[in-house]
Amino acid sequence: MRGHKTGSTRGRAWWWTAGSAVVAAAALLGISVPGIAQAAYPGSDGLIAFVRHGNIYTVNPEAATPSSTVVRLTRGGHDSGPRWSPDGQQLAYLDQGNLWIMNANGSHKTRVTGQAPAYSDARPTWSPNGRYLAFVKTRKGAGFGYLTRYDTVTGKFATFSTPFNSEQPTRRQIKVTALPAAIAWAWARDATGVSSGSFIIFEGATAPPCPSSSYCLFALGFAAQSDYRNGFASGEDQTTKPIRQLDPDWYPNSPLFSVDALTTQQTCAAGHCTHQGIDITIGSSPSLPGAYEAVYSPSGAFLAYVKNVRGTPEIYIHSAPTAGPVSRRALTSGSQPDWQPLPPVT
User: Can you give the CATH number for the domain in which 217 is found?
Assistant: First the structure.
């Protein structure tokens, strides 16, 4: 079905999708938050990967003294964007603008791309089945990049596309804001709450379809995780500048794609962005003032996020909104946390 309609919840707009009528209703905004965990990869809580001084580390958040469990996985000071695979056995990350994969203990580092600095890759995200890696490929000096997929089985690359808003000379390709442009991939329910599909959430770039006066959050939907051609983009949230939302992360237990993702809300003015806090669901008001880069633990019991303390980024652990009494504790200095999913404890 080709066409679109718009609604107004903080400027949110929705587009219909092929195969499932992705039409958000106001009632969806009032649903209860389901059990939650980071990046749609549920399981038991493992290590937390994070970045400190351009290197990737892990830490055990359950240790009595977490600082004693910090392990450095990379060296050189040019790494960022660690993302755990759904089985918790590998980490995807960026090194000097190229995409790499390594084992959970830092061994067997393998370079996936090698076009930097002519092209730089932004923070990757795994498909829920662990076969594919999506990332944003950006030409040097460009204000936007393209949503790209790497197949870990065949070693081939593909560019995600949509039949809407075709543009020359990059017809059908998905424009995403330039670095850091974090994205997240989930197997989520559509707006009807019945059908499921493969959705990637990202910050869209420029008109069309995002007006130059706004920041736009989109979810690109497909019927299967293997699909990459002719997906249909749904406008998840649209905020008038200087307010923007980025660093999306999905809830894992049957998330509703049009609501069940958290983001960092920023105010960007005069070339400087200030973190306002974490939006627990799409379109909600910020909570945890000043926090950013939040992810949920695979068990759904905790939330990891970053907050600047005297000019230094610090990672904190906080009980999840539905996990009972509120608890909060500092974990370690660093940024860009991502929580390792492990097989559920039986």
Answer: 2.120.10.30
